[in-house]
Amino acid sequence: MIEAYEQITKLKNIIERFSSFIINASSEKDINEILFMTIDACLDLTGSDGATIYLKETIDQEEKLVIRATKNLSINFGFYLGYSLPISPISLCGYAAVSQKHVYNKRYFKLA
Fold it and tell me: Is 54 helix (H, G, I), strand (E, B) or coil?
């Protein structure tokens, strides 16, 4: 019974934090600020050390993935903002974009 209560409490906390993010993001007009708010919410909700948001953009008539928001709690990766990668299986993000499937490392993650 206590275990079920703890799980419900955790789920309620996650829903409240996610709802707060949605309310704050919906009132923001600057897309860059929304992207960084999204990064912060993802780090908070997942307990992750870092996150990156790539957007698909056309550069010199070629579709690429461009880093538009990134944050790492251990290392400053801000200098990568604007860096572009080809949409190809040569990188993890490129592979995910080509295959349209999530990518995870079984060594670090357990999927239910």
Answer: strand
